[in-house]
Every structure is written in C-alpha cells, then in structure tokens.
Specification:
about 200 residues; alpha+beta; L,D-transpeptidase catalytic domain-like; two-stranded antiparallel sheet; 4 helices; about 20% helix; transferase; Transpep_catalytic_dom; L,D-TPase catalytic domain-containing protein
C-alpha cells in the first residue's frame, strides 16, 4: 500500500521495489512453512485480526442519503461506527450517466486523496471502481466520494469549490458530502486502516 502524505492507494504493492519483493517473497515462504506446522487452534486468527470495516451508501434521496462506516466480526451482528449525510446524482435513474445516483452493488475504494486536482473535483476525493447500472447497461465511470473545495481543502470562490448549502448535495452521479463531513470520513477511514470496500444499497 502506498501511503504518502496526500494519497492512500488501496490497490496493492505496485510501487514495491524488486529487492523488497524478493525479501517479502522469502518471508512469505518461511511464514507458510511455520503456519503449516501449527495446529488449527494455533493458526486461527484472533478476534482483533478478524475485525473488518467497509462503507455502506444507503440511498434515500438525491440530497439526503447516508454514508455509513460499518464494522464486521465473525459471529457478531454488523455494527455502525459512524454515519454522515451524503447525496448522489440529480435523478434516481442509475443508468443516466453524470446524472443518476450510483447503481447498487459493491465497489472498490481505489484511492483516498486529500489534494486531488481534477477539472471539477478537488481536494478530498476518494476514487471508486467503475460499475454498470445493470448487465449490459450504462458503464458508470470516473466515480468518487467528494465534496466542493479547492485542491488544498479550503473553500474557493467558484461554485465547484464553494459549499453553499443543501442543494450542493446534488452531484453528477458521485457521492457528495459537505467539506467537514468528508474530512471526518477520511479521519475515520484512516483510524481503521482505510477500508477498500463500498456497498451501495437502497
């Protein structure tokens, strides 16, 4: 995982140097031999290791839905850790590109950016994987969880960089939060190791 000051890449060790790859491979082989010699009770993960986190986007309306951080653990009910108001799209037709809210399903959270510098999306922006609205349907791409701010996270003077109120929860199909909320989401994600999964439901 690449974890520089501004971006967290959750897609894996693509930046690992070859020497480190060899060292890690050797460690994995050694660890594999060690695990093979353990009894099932010794090899079983502890409760702490079995804890996992993911996000859920619960769609209600285009401007008043919920982004939820969820904790899961074997043999226990899922637990809501935190929740934030969020919006998505300007219509509930998920097949309308750049207008419909996100299609239901599971997404990969590919990167957590805090200084993203896109043409419209800037600052805190968490990149999602692509998703078709239905089998053979419209491919929804360039998807993010984002807000309205400048690259440095401060408020700007233009509409795209300035949060004016509840109407700004509308988006071009992404998930959108107010600036203070998306900072809170980033902090919560960091505290639990940057979850890689988002589940969209309605």
């Amino acid at each position: 995982m690449s974890t520089d000051l501004h971006t967290v890449d959750t897609t894996g060790g693509t930046t690992m140097r070859m020497g480190k790859r060899v060292a890690v491979a050797g460690s994995v082989l050694a660890l594999g031999g060690f695990i093979a010699g353990l009894t099932p009770a010794q090899a079983a993960p502890s409760g702490a290791q079995a804890i996992k986190y993911h996000f859920v986007f619960d769609k209600k309306t285009n401007t008043d839905s919920r982004l939820i951080l969820v904790k899961t653990q074997p043999n226990k009910p899922a637990q809501k850790v935190a929740s934030w108001r969020a919006g998505s799209g300007t219509t509930t037709d998920s097949c309308k590109k750049n207008k419909g809210w996100l299609p239901n399903g599971t997404y990969e959270i590919k990167r957590y950016n805090t200084n993203y510098n896109g043409s419209l999306i800037k600052g805190y922006a968490f990149q999602l994987s692509d998703k078709r609205c239905k089998p053979g349907g419209t491919l929804r791409d360039e998807l993010f969880i984002h807000s309205e701010m400048k690259k440095d996270g401060n408020q700007g003077n233009t509409e795209a960089t300035r949060w004016d109120g509840n109407s700004d929860y509308k988006s071009a199909g992404c998930i959108k939060l107010k600036p203070s909320a998306i900072r809170s989401v980033y902090k919560a994600a960091k505290n639990v190791g940057f979850p890689r999964t988002l589940k969209v439901v309605s």
